[in-house]
């Protein structure tokens, strides 16, 4: 069903048509997930090993293999992101440990990132829930209330060179490895997993709701 056909539907019919289309993307396909993992992890290991072996013949030769290895590492980061959302593989415990193993390669604390990212999605756009997994954004009134030094600091913070250069390096090299502020006393992996499993159940509930609405 194309967009023109959808436009011809009125009210609830249009909504039901969209629900039918979107429901196809709420299903886990384990075979496809394993395929994507294999075509990413195997080439990464190959280029990683090739780069290490090439170092014996010179750094420039090793650099040739490092570039594609970095590309596949980035793709592993994307798969770990999907694991964090519970949208990869479909079996929660398998998703959990797949994400943790990939996190060893991406040098990121899996449970911390998953919780921070979940809070980011839950509070995105809510000015009263800022501070976790997001980019600091001030309202006009908050900006005007800053001192001169504060305004300069905020402008520097929001500068593209900082946001996409220095800030990104700080985030991936330090912040995600030493998450100060979230390493509170008594926090365990179980605390993170409880929240993540609730998120996974909520995803399942939304899928069931879509199926119910389609059947109505």
Automatic annotation (TrEMBL):
Entry's Gene Ontology BP terms: lipid metabolic process
Domain Fatty acid desaturase: 60-164
Ranges that cross the membrane: 34-53, 59-78, 156-174
Highest taxon in the source lineage: Bacteria
Entry keyword annotation includes Membrane: yes
Keywords, sorted A to Z: Membrane, Transmembrane, Transmembrane helix
InterPro entries to which the protein is assigned, alphabetical: FA_desaturase_dom (IPR005804)
Entry annotated with the keyword Transmembrane helix: yes
Protein name listed in UniProt: Fatty acid desaturase
């Amino acid at each position: 069903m194309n967009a023109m056909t959808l436009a011809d539907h009125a009210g609830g019919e249009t909504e039901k048509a969209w629900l039918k289309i979107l429901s196809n993307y709420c299903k886990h396909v384990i075979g496809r997930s394993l395929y994507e993992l294999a075509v990413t992890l195997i080439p990464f290991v190959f280029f990683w090993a090739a780069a290490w072996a090439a170092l014996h013949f010179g750094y420039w030769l090793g650099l040739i293999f490092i570039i594609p290895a970095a590309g596949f590492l980035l793709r592993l980061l994307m798969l770990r992101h999907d694991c964090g959302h519970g949208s990869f593989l479909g079996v929660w415990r398998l998703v959990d440990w797949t994400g943790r193993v990939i996190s060893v390669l991406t040098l990121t604390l899996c449970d911390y990132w998953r919780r921070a990212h979940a809070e980011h999605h839950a509070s995105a756009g809510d000015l009263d829930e800022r501070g976790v997994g997001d980019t600091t954004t001030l309202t006009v009134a908050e900006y005007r209330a800053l001192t001169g030094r504060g305004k300069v600091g905020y402008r520097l913070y929001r500068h593209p060179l900082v946001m996409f250069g220095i800030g990104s390096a700080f985030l991936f090299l330090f912040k995600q490895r030493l998450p100060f502020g979230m390493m509170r006393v008594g926090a365990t992996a179980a605390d993170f997993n409880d929240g993540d499993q609730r998120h996974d159940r909520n995803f399942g509930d939304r899928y069931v709701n879509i199926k119910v609405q389609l059947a109505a």
